[in-house]
């Protein structure tokens, strides 16, 4: 097995660097490179080497199986194959050492047959045994092992290209210049492919997430968080909610009031956290809310509290593909109103003790009005579960509470302390590196990584509040913080989906959002956002108008009419023009023929009619055998003259000033050949027999 | 149609498709290219999640390699060289196990030197037919498990090898300069008998990385007969008795001394036999005709009646070919009786065919499903008075064959019987006489050596110089 000097070292250094085992990689590389300088070599024959290799093959296989079993049984590795790939080249080390010590550049693959073959199983031919250089295969395995490491930096690709380039140089078959050109092109194309793949996966994930969120409603009982998710977390720019603040009945006259942003609209809240999942335990059943039927309105009082003058009103537009969905409501929601005279009103609603409200409607676009008041509370009183913490992270949370002295502070100060603590020590990020082995995602966030998305902040805050003795819940929904470019309204996009804490303080549940305030700015908008918004607005306007789909159909019909009617008109015009041209041609011909028409008429009577599609010359050639020679010649001259006069270069000039010559010639011809004298009379059998002279004369 | 036959047909189609794919990969990609392709697929597998590992970057590079290599090796970019003329000179015939040498004559009238080209022989499609697949038995079939027997992959692989006849390696061409004429030698070793049909050659050139090949087909049809392998057998001299030759008589066989009559001169007649008096009297040449010489005739019977194609059949052919080589004597006749589409007979020696002609017949012999045992035996029995000895090579043993052998023995013929069959199969239908040499399929050479009729040298016997003999 012969390899270019230094290549083994380079590949092993790359592996060591990627696996955080640089020393091991360097040492092994050095040792393997040094083997090339060893004076003593394996002295056995080729057959002995093959037998030895076949035995070592089993040893390698045993090592590989042991490695696989070890990695599969190691608890924190799970079922990931990457560690196996990362360490796989070590399993082949015995065979590689043997080959390096043998000093042979290539080796037959016969040892595989010896190792695996049974008598009579192999088909023997007298083919020349295949010799291969196993060294390159082994190096390729090392490179693959190096690539099994988690992504860190961009240098890997360049180092890999250099190593692969050295290997490719060894097998090149053409001139160096062509090779270098192709290598450069390969590196560039390879970079484009892998960058494309990386971004392609983002797009695919985004699309899949969109698809899932569109098809599934928020689960009011269970919320699977993305805690521990490695890589980029990205949601789409699609508008989910269109929020319009209204002020009682005079909204249109006075203009819409402005909202204090950000506004949190909750869809569900949960009370138990277990390994990345928030759950609702206890009484989780939804109970129907009794509707109050009013003229053109249906009203649900979801808290039972009296409506005061400080109530605020929101109109929320949303879309669903299901028959029921969780409604996004602001804190302190009191009443939900649906206009029954508009499209797709809510049929009924139900609520659970955690404050989640479920609306029932026809799938599609729907909207509802919500009245809310700052100090009203939709949720029930806290229970023991609102103070429960996961066992795994309990110690860490209590330490943190002690560290922040939360247990010694009054409740109101706890909230400000926590808010300040997260704002100062933690950063918002949708990108996540791997988690330290043996640690939970929450512990990694709190103690090590200190960066994460809203679910980390909400979970940590909720659990810290509980550790500090305050009942708290985990809430999910949307954070409205963007004004619409079309009309006085606010938007909540899919990427504005948010999680926060709710803490029971002063006899009511209050929102506490410790996620850094700039979190929405850190999620960049897509390139087509403006276009999407415009389209959404247009659809909304159409739906809001009384005509709705009828108007849309009319618009479509109008558009089609605009496209089709001019074409129909144009084709009509063309056909009319064509008909007119044909008619004028016919008249022109009739007028122009003049006396020639009389000749045609006479010939028709004689049984030599001109067919409609025939030209005069064609007709004349056809009837020539039936005409007297003189009459034929004269008629030919007349037709030639007619053609010259009508189609010749001086046709127009001569036609207007002088009478056509063929007219006179035609008149003369008519006079010279009265009736059917121009025609040859048909032969009569008896006459031929009795008067042959006449026949000859006629000819 | 049973489920089994349906399954077998489906498998055969799949094998054929797999072979096509394999051939395409083998031709289109070099060995390095095949390795790269495998590495590319492996990296694609491990690099599926770009967030988890860097394997996707490896995949990017390898995929770029393969894409560019495929593009640059397309026939539109690497065009066929203009003005290249190739001819192939094959030997008259080749033998199984013996290296055959041949060469290409190359004439190049182009303007640019040709570098890095390779020649690949393009043989006839070796995929076995369904009938061939259905009736063949590959070596070691009885040792395979039920699954292997049902799937029949080993049978397919063996038939493919048999139909391929040989593997001709790639031939790297040296740099060919404009207006240059050169001859390039090549060689191959056949591993099966039969007609080696070559459709043409593929002129291949790789991309700069040496991963993919652009292929240009040059039509160069040729056929070469590969004779069966012959082993150096040392048989004891067969007893002979002189019989008058009848229809086998030829002018070149030598004359006797007993005058038979006069006949008109035929070209080739010796002037010594000219009867001048008759010539003078009739005006046309007349020669004296003498009684033909007596000679010895041996019969060689190859009984492959209803024998399946397989290792036993091939070894019976090889044994018969070796017997032809061993029994041939210029002064005696050797009659080969065999079956193909019918019952046939061919003779060599004493003015008849050369033994090489018999080997040619054996080279093209295929297994027959027809029951032609009776006519084959009848042919021998009818002529038994004219034979001095009879050597039988059989693949089956039953009552009919036992009766036939006993009849031959009773007629006083010197008899040798070689039976190639597994001992169990041979013993079941009829008792086997002691003097029948039983040989086990797959071990014929070893057992012949044990019988002392085969030299220790395992390499195939060199083809004797028949003309000199």
Features:
heterodimer, A: about 700 residues, alpha+beta, 8-stranded antiparallel sheet, 26 strands, about 50% helix, B: about 475 residues, alpha/beta, 5-stranded mixed sheet, disordered C terminus
Walkthrough of the structure:
The complex is a heterodimer of chains A (699) and B (469). The termini of chain A are far apart. Chain A has 23 helices and 26 strands. In chain A, the strands form 7 sheets. Chain A has an 8-stranded antiparallel beta sheet, with helices on one face. Chain A is flat, with a radius of gyration of 47 Å. Chain A is of the alpha+beta class and 699 residues long. Chain B has 469 residues and is an alpha/beta fold. Chain B has 13 helices and 18 strands. Chain B has helices spanning 3-28, 31-46, 55-72, 130-135, 146-151, 153-164, 276-282, 311-327, 355-363, 373-382, 399-410, 423-427, 444-451, and strands at 84-89, 93-95, 100-108, 117-123, 171-172, 181-188, 194-206, 213-227, 243-244, 255-264, 286-292, 294-295, 297-303, 333-339, 343-348, 389-394, 414-420, 436-439. In chain B, strand 7 (194-206) and strand 8 form a beta hairpin. Chain B starts with a helix and ends in an 18-residue tail after the last helix. The interface between A and B is large, with 59 and 51 residues.
